[in-house]
Amino acid sequence: MRYRFGVIAPLLLLFPLGCAKQFPADYAASKYTRGQITGEAGEAGAATFTPPAPIQAKIDQLLHEQYPPPWAWSDSEIASDPTKQSLRKGQQLYQKHCIHCHGLSGAGDGPTSASLVPRPRDFRRGIFKWKSTSSRAKPTREDLLRVLKEGANGTSMPPFMLMPADQLDALADYVVYLSKRGELERELLLVYSQEGSTEEELKKNGETLSDSDRDELIEVITETAEEKNETLTEAWETAKDFVVEPEETDVTLSDADAFEASVARGKELYLGSNSGCTKCHGVDGRAQTKLSGADSLDIWGNENAPRNLTLGLFRGGRRPVDVYRRVHEGIAGSSMPSQGSNPKLTKKDIWDLVNFVRVLPDRPEMLQAPAQSLGGVASQVTPGH
Amino acid sequence: MSKWSLFFLLVPVAGVALFAVAEYTGWSLPPVQSTLGARMDHLYYVLLAITGVTFIFTQLAIAFLVYFYSKPRQGVQPVTTGGGALAMGLWFTVPLAGFALLLMVFPMPVESRLWMALSLSVGWPLMMSLLVIGRKARQKGAAMYMHGNTSLEVIWTIIPTIVFLGLAVYQMPLWEEFRYPRTKPADVMPVRVVGRQFEWRMVYPGPDGKFDTPDDLHIPNELHATKGKEVWVDLRAMDVLHSFFLPLHRVKQDAVPGLTIPVWFDSIQSTWEYQEGAADYAAEDVIDVTKLQTAVNDAKTPALAYLKETLKLPADATPAAVAKGLDDVLAKTDFYDASRFPDDTLSFEMRQLIGTKPAEKRLRLLNRKLLDITLADSVRPLGRHFDIVCAELCGWGHYKMKGRLFVHDTPEQLDEWLKTQYSLQGAVR
Ligand SMILES: [Cu+2]
User: Fold this and answer.
1) In the structure, what pLDDT confidence band is assigned to residue A384 with cuts at 50, 70 and 90?
2) What is the pLDDT of residues B175-193, one digit of tens each?
3) Under an 8 Å CB criterion, which residues of A touch B?
4) Taking the model in full, what pTM does it have?
5) CA distance B169 to chain A (A)
6) At B72, is the pLDDT very low, low, confident or very high (cuts 50, 70, 90)?
7) Residues of chain B found within 8 Å of residue A361, distances taken between Cβ atoms
8) Is B424 in Cβ contact with A324 (below 8 Å)?
9) What's the Cα-to-Cα distance from B55 to each of B28, B49, B91, rounded to whole Å?
10) Quick one: closest CA in B to A250, which residue?
11) What is the pLDDT of residues A55-71, one digit of tens each?
């Protein structure tokens, strides 16, 4: 008996120790392959692109200066700094509610992420899908808050509807912080990858990084960091200027007959060749043919199937204006193209498409349907698409 | 062994005591909020009374047997009749008195007390007498070896059967009313609740009154209702099994993919009525005095400037003192002021609350909510809500599947909310 106690007691002691997980000193350095950084198709299973130690150290240092981890700040340090306070608050909330999916540095690699389709967003690209702004612009603050409050219907991104406004604000700030940090890191690696080789590459070619080269590269990187930070800050601050606002006169929602006519036109447009929708979403709207090549992946390299439009799952929001923006701008980071820049479609055509797409889930028979047609939100059994 | 018997008696006593204190420590059922729920609670208390008394009886009987029938130790005389009489007298009275006391302090509904009192006053002396007779009989002769007793077995089968059947019949009307409601009021607002990993999606039919049209209103995690009016939910699930659970309304129903399950409930209180009673600050609600003091002293917003004027906290104020000071603000009629809280900074709910021209209690609540906003981070916001949770471990993010039922005071308020939502959801710009 006593012997057993002797074994169990130390084990019990280990419990609290095991739970008190220490935070790392800084965010983890991202593991990109060269292809992921440059955007060129890299070979599968390529090695992580790691610059030689002095360069990496400089990158780490620059990142740490611009985006220090809020958990490392001392209480006295943040006491008189509202920005830091807000970031700390955001980071703590993030740790509680988001980290298990979106990961410590916002790479979308939290422990839960492995089992999720679609994968949690990787903020480091600075690309967001569900926004009111044009395809290449950043989302506005309201956009981020909207995704936080409503979630992304049809994905595992949950709605945080009941969270108090001040907490949502802090979280949005922190998401931007992580995104800016990630983008800066990527830019610095990109600059280096254009000029220099990794440690292994150097070794393989029997080269070394000369002191003068090193100093020159460090200078380039330092300058880039400064510039990039400015452009990033500006991009986030000016996002509002890029909001896509449809013309009110193009909408036909109030009058039932006009609306039905619009839906009918939308159907023709959808099936026609000017819009090209059927190429991905299929003539039955169910997106059953698998795309191949680059079309089947999103910019993060994850599987990105076109939506089954009969399910009524609008990840980016189901308001008419949301769907309008999806069709008008396309979906950033995915293969879904912008129709706003399609010369064959007018704005009115886009509204017709939107009206059609919005009623389709409730009238799946509008498109030639296979055997069963289940309408409504609850009959959807495949949340993955 | 006889002393050990008392030790083992402690376990059931502790169990019973736990139930008794539970009513005060908040471990018991939370305050019920629906009419059916009140009747379910009644059932619960009847069951608790029956099982409780049976439990107490059997435990005491066992202890009694062990105490008086234990084998005398070497050289110690078995309990004599004289000493036995005193001990026996105590056995009769002390537990009875204890339970009478318990019955008095245990805040159960009256009917459960009656049940308990009745079964105790009849059952306890009866059973003890039987045990004493048995003991007398034993003292006369040697112990008896008995292998089964058919009549006894019949008795202990029939009595529980009767009790269970009685309960089954007794609860039937309630079950029927919940499960097979006959009269659906004409004016109920239908709502579809769809469980999905990891949200409750509330779907209203929209202005056209029909489901499955593009104007359907989808609200994640927030269900709205009116006080005193029934809510009829069509419960569905989109991916896996979920369980729709409203603890305060005593509603729990699995949501099954492919099925539409009707669930209905009503609300005795509106959300604000439920919150009114808890508007005051307690010392625990003040989570960061330093932060609060700094914010108030800096007076960066008009509301904080007002607090700087009125609160006048000493530099070393304790959380209790701060709570006291804040409570004084709660009682003030002039804390809300459009210049301190411009309309566009306030949520729809807050604007509605202000619009109800609060009575005194309501005013405290309004002030509390405004203070919570003003002093976010340093005080704990009023956390009383009608929660909706998922009572099924449905996946990794299960604990995020939390919603809220908001119960309006009047149908007009609900309509106003719906209209606002319709216009938001129909947004074309
Ligand atoms: Cu669930």
Assistant:
1) very low
2) 998 888 777 777 787 899 9
3) 79, 89, 97, 100-101, 112, 115, 149-151, 153, 156, 158-159, 161-162, 164-166, 245-246, 248, 251, 253, 318-321, 324, 355, 358-359, 361-362, 375-381, 383
4) 0.84
5) 36
6) low
7) 212
8) no
9) 19, 10, 17
10) B428
11) 999 999 999 999 999 99
> In what side-by-side order are the strands of the sheet with B231-237?
B217-220, B199-204, B190-196, B231-237, B261-265
Contact predicate B377/A89, CB 8 Å? yes
What is the tens place of the pLDDT at every residue in A360-379? 998 888 987 544 444 444 44
Pairwise CB contact (< 8 Å): A159 & B199: yes
Q: Give the pLDDT confidence score for residue B207 in this predicted structure.
A: 86
Over chain A, what is the mean pLDDT? Answer: 85
CA R_g for chain A: 25
Q: Which of B219, B377, B426 is closest, CB to CB, to A319?
A: B426
ipTM above 0.85, yes or no: no
Give the closest-approach CA distance of B345 to chain A in angstroms: 10
CB contact under 8 A, B347 and A251: no
Are B220 and B401 contacting, i.e. CB atoms less than 8 angstroms apart?
Answer: no
Rg (CA), chain B: 30
Q: Over chain A, what HEC string results?
A: CHHHHHHHHHHHHHHHHHHCCCCCCCCCCCCCEHHHHHCCCCCCCCCECCCCHHHHHHHHHHHHHHCCCHHHCCHHHHHCCHHHHHHHHHHHHHHHHCHHHHCCCCCCCCCCHHHCCCCCCCHHHCCCCCCCECCCCCCCHHHHHHHHHHCCCCCCCCCCCCCCHHHHHHHHHHHHHHHHHHHHHHHHHHHHHHHCCCHHHHHHCCCCCCHHHHHHHHHHHHHHHHHHHHHHHHHHHCHHHHECCCCHHHCCCCCHHHHHHHHHHHHHHHHCCCCCHHHHHCCCCCCCCCCCHHHHECCCCCECCCCCCCCCCCCCCCCHHHHHHHHHHCCCCCCCCCCCCCCCCCHHHHHHHHHHHHHHHHCHHHCCCCCCCCCCHHHCCCCCC
Tell me the residue type at A110: G
Distance CA A323, CA A316 (A): 8
Q: What is the DSSP letter of B126?
A: H
Q: Is B55 helix (H, G, I), strand (E, B) or coil?
A: helix
| Three-class secondary structure of residue B279 per DSSP | coil
- Identify the weakest region by mean pLDDT among A33-47, A144-158, B314-328: A33-47
Whether residues B396 and A158 touch (CB distance < 8 A) is answered with no
